[in-house]
Amino acid sequence: MRQIISHFTDDDLYKLSMCCAVIENYPRTQVKYQFVDRNNTVYPEGFADLLNEQIRMLEQVVITEEEIAFMKRQCKYIPGWFYPYLKGYRYHREWVKAWQDEEGHLHVEFEGNWSDTILLEVKVLAIISELFYIVTHQTDKFDYKAYYDKTYHKAERLLAAGCVYSDFGTRRRASFTAEETVVRAMKDCNLSQQWPGRFVGTSNVYLAMKYDLIPVGTMAHEFVCAIGGMYGPQMANHIAMNAWRNTFRGALGTYLYDSFGWDIFSMNFSEDFANLFKGLRIDSGNNREQLLKIAEKYKSLGIDPLTKQVIFSNALNTDQAIEIQRYAVDYCQPSFGIGTHFTNDFEGVEPMNIVIKLVAAKITELWPFYNDTCKLSEDDGKHTGKPEVVRRFMETLHFKED
Fold this sequence. Notes:
The protein is an alpha/beta fold. Helices cover 44% and strands 15% of the residues. The longest helix is centred in the middle third of the chain and has 17 residues, at 144-160. The model has no long low-confidence stretch (mean pLDDT 97).
């Protein structure tokens, strides 16, 4: 079978930025990740073998001088020492275990040094998604000419509505070609005339390089979740914000706050952090309710929320983004990160609902045991982790569900 991932930077920017912060702040931390298929999909027989073959192929994927030069131009906040690390980085199949059970359900686990395994998640998810459509013979439904036109129309609507937005769709894309088609259509539409809105760029670093766009992204839940596992969830956001500040000195200033819910984050979000970070990202819960909480928090700190950016990224589609834009402009500077709706929206094809989450961490390889961690979502029923760990964290934080 052909190799699905063949470019090192065919990845989301936030994996690279987090890798940099991990090396600087937690260089010896060991972690475990686990794959979750929320649709409980039964995969074709032999799928795990094909996945393991693709993971072996990753061992030949290395960063190029062209990719490094692009990142140095566009990502000036990344310190120079990080690029020699990337040049020497190699994937290893030993970090990954993938198998199917008797019913055909897929299981995937990563384990190793955090700075190594952190660069697996997005690539492996993208492989699983594209591979699934290949082996189930659904690629015949991928009409890329029609998809370009469909995407161009989405862009017209978003730009006309004044939306500032980015492509966040690498992880669950139908294929690499699908995401490339999206980026090309979005850029073409953005340049076709003067619009009230703006297509900012893509989280995919390789496609940003290929189409001369800005790579977009900061961090993911795993950064806070790992810290919560090592030090406890009560102060995890405080520690994470401090670590991020130590590495990026105010750059990459959009903080993803909902790893353990709004309430504990709000207690950690003091005036110095509120002034330091350019804004917050809403990735779960009711968008309007979360926005109102954010605006009130800024006001309580004497900060005008209209000076702050809020990125909405909770499983959005075009209609939802336009609706949010209409009311959010009265509270903040809204922008949008849209993923699966952009990169996996073919007629007759069901997008996969898959994630890989960090589930345990230990601060050094010398520790004989891991500390379990989890993610507590503002969306009911979307907590991720062992049920007993989720309950323990919820009790610790007095987490209230609606």
